[in-house]
Each structure stands twice: as C-alpha cells, then as structure tokens.
Amino acid sequence: MWHSSEGEFTAEGKQCSRPGCCSWDASVIEAILLVGGQGTRLRPLTATTPKPMLPVAGQPITVHQIRRARAAGVGRVVLGTSYRADVFTRALGDGADLGIDVAYAHETTPLGTGGAIRNAAEELNCGPNDPVVVFNGDIINGLDIAALVDGHVSSGSAVTLHLTTVEDPRRYGLVPTDETGRVLTFLEKPETEAEIVTNQINAGCYVFRRSVIDRIALGRPVSVERETFPGLLRDGDLVRGVVDDSYWLDLGTPWDYVQGSVDLVTGRAPGAQIPSGAQIRGGQSLVLDGANVSPEATLSGGTTIDRGCVVAADAIVDGCVVMTNVHIGQGARLFRSAVGAGAKIEAGAVITEAVVGDGARIGRDAVIGAGARIGVGAVVPDGITVTANRG
Ligand code: GDD
Ligand code: MG
User: Fold this and answer.
1) Residues 289 and 271 sit within 8 Å (Cβ to Cβ)
2) Is the CB of residue 138 below 6 angstroms from any atom belonging to ligand 1?
3) pLDDT in tens, 163-189
4) What is the CA(291)–ligand 2 centre distance, in A?
5) What does the pLDDT look like over 290-334, one tens digit per residue?
6) Which residues fall within 8 angstroms of residue 34, CB to CB, at 6 or more apart?
7) Lowest-pLDDT range, 18-32, 103-117, 169-183, 318-332?
8) Would you say the CB of residue 169 lies under 6 angstroms from ligand 1?
9) 203 CA closest ligand 1 atom index
10) 9 phi, psi to nearest 5 deg
C-alpha cells in the first residue's frame, strides 16, 4: 500500500481504499489518443489515409498503439479526431475487436494538441484525481506505460511526461529536468542554437491528473506544448519528466515511417503484433494473407507486402512498406520506400527512398529516387527518371 495526494493504493489492485477519495482502478485506466493532425509531411500517403491509420508491420499505427496501451492496463481510449475521422470510426468501431472500449471526440476544426486533449476529456468517465494517459498518434516505442502511470500516481504530479534523448532535438519539444526529474522549462521546436539546452525531448506520451486537463480552455485551439506545459510550470505545478531510452520513433516523415515499420518487422522495435494469417519470412519480411509473391522474388530488410499484392519473379523489395493491392512487375527493384495501395510498378522500374501515392503507375524501367514523391494516381512514363531532394 502507498499513499499519494491522489489516495491510497495497493500494489495488486491499485484501488484507492479511502472512501470518496478517488476512483482510480488500474483495470479501467482511460487514455486519449491524438489522431487529428493532417500528416502534411507524409503526403501523398496521407491524402486518403490519416497518418495514424497508415500501416506499420501490416496494421495501422493506431491499432499498434491501442494494443500496447491495452496490454499496459488501459481499458478505454478516446480518439481525438479531426482530419478524416471517418477512416477511424470505420476501422475501429467501438473497439470490440481490440478488446477495449473506443470512444471518439471529433473536432470540426482542429483544436491543436491541447485543445484536442480538452475536447476528448468530455468523453472521459474517470474522476478529477484519476490519471489519464495521453498519446501522440504517430509514435512507436518500448515505453513501460504501466510504470509511467504508477510513478505519476505515487509522486502526486500534475503531469508526467515520457522523455527520450535524441542526437538532433530541433524537430521536437526540449524538456530539461532537474536531478529529481522535475521539468524546468518546455521549449517546443527551438529556432536558435542558444535554445538547444538539452537533447532530452518530449516523447509524446503523458499522464495527466484529470483535473489538470479540465483546466485547459474548451473549444478554442490550444497547443499543449506551447501553452499548457509552460503555463503549468509558471503556476508552480509539479510536472515530472521520466527519461526512458528504450526504442522510440516519431513516424512523421516518410523515411521515419518506413523505418518504423521495418524495425517492427525485424524485431528492433518491440511489440509487433503480426496480423493473423501473415508470415514473417526469415525474420526479414512480412507477407500478409492473400499476397502472391513469386518464389523467384527477393524480400528483405524488414519489408512488408500487404494483402492482395502481386510480386513477380526477380523483383527485389528491400526495407519497404508495400500497401494493399500493389502490383510489382518482373525484375523491379524497390529500396527503403513506401508504396500506396493499388499502385502499379512495371517491370524493371527502380525506386529508391521514395514515396509512391495510391494508384500511381511507375512505367517500365523508370527510375524514381532521392526522396521523390509520386502523387496519388500519377503516371510516370516508361524509362523516365524522377529525382527530388529528400525532405
Ligand atoms: N485531434 C487533434 N487535433 N490531433 C492533433 C492536432 C489537432 O489539432 N494537431 C496534431 N494532432 C496530433 C497528430 O495527429 C499527432 O498524432 C500528434 O497530435 C502530434 O502532432 P505532430 O504533428 O506529429 O507533432 P510533432 O511530431 O511535430 O511534435 C510533437 O511530437 C514530438 C514527439 O514526436 C510535439 O508533442 C513535440 O513536443 C514532441 O517532441
Ligand atoms: Mg509527430
């Protein structure tokens, strides 16, 4: 049994024993998943599919995250949707197939990360002192979510942030802490060298005390990173950071997206749940049920070939994500690329570190490389070379 400002908890049941103190029960921990962003950096893949619904190792990022949350004791998740909300509701419904309650909080105009959290809180059932786990919807990691929640409750923090360390922190929120883990400042996407005071960053998973979420303004855009966290620090609330340097990746760019899927297939990223009927071949590739891969084709480097694909003889597909119903012709070679649903890659084409939109056609012997992005339904004529700067 331990006590915190949130009540008393037993190690086994994690149920507060003080009448009326709080209602936290680990079996019904609630979470909010932020899935409303536009996924701009992942275009054209996100033209039809919102970023969190893009497949990694054969299943949507969101499904992967929900399964991990459920394994950590989360019993109910509210999806904060905006862009292409219909895709989530159609695929996940009420969550029955995933063994978890799924609810939705829709924003007709995007409310930003903080506004989305506040909006989603309208759908929560828990009490004011209970912990609520919040996830950015584009992250895969090896975080011990249950330990983060336990530490949050026992420390009586207003918010606990998962932090990780990266070589180049400029794309992220910088979060220096003192020796006790107390967050000192929160600096989102620093613009000058002088602002880079740490390589410790916000890893996009938080545990909030419910009442702290309720203090965020309802119905207007709020950035949790630029407004809520700095405001809590100014007000002297206890905001703690927990550095966990296990596997972590934000899948926000095409190259990181492909890398995340590859890492799940090869086992470098933990927790891949392989769809039923799929086969992992030699620890190097994942072929989903209903794909037709020639025995003369070579799949390697953590490639996924999704349902309904055809891969012809002598094709090489290395370190790629190939979505549903793609046709890869004889002798085509694809490296570290993402290919959208229904695309057709003709014989002899070569694609390197590129993105091919849904339904595009890459002509015979065409060469696509150096970070090129081929639009949805675009046609690249036979023999043409397309290059672009990797962005
Ligand atoms: N519902 C909703 N509404 N969701 C949103 C909105 C919105 O208006 N804006 C963004 N999101 C969701 C995105 O779908 C994504 O899952 C998550 O919020 C974070 O947005 P990103 O666009 O991916 O942010 P980022 O990667 O630039 O930065 C964030 O993540 C970093 C870690 O990966 C910040 O939280 C950084 O501080 C952090 O370091
Ligand atoms: Mg992101």
Assistant:
1) no
2) yes
3) 999 999 999 999 999 999 999 999 999
4) 31
5) 999 999 999 999 999 999 999 999 999 999 999 999 999 999 999
6) 80, 113, 116, 117, 134, 135, 136, 137
7) 18-32
8) no
9) 32
10) -135, 140
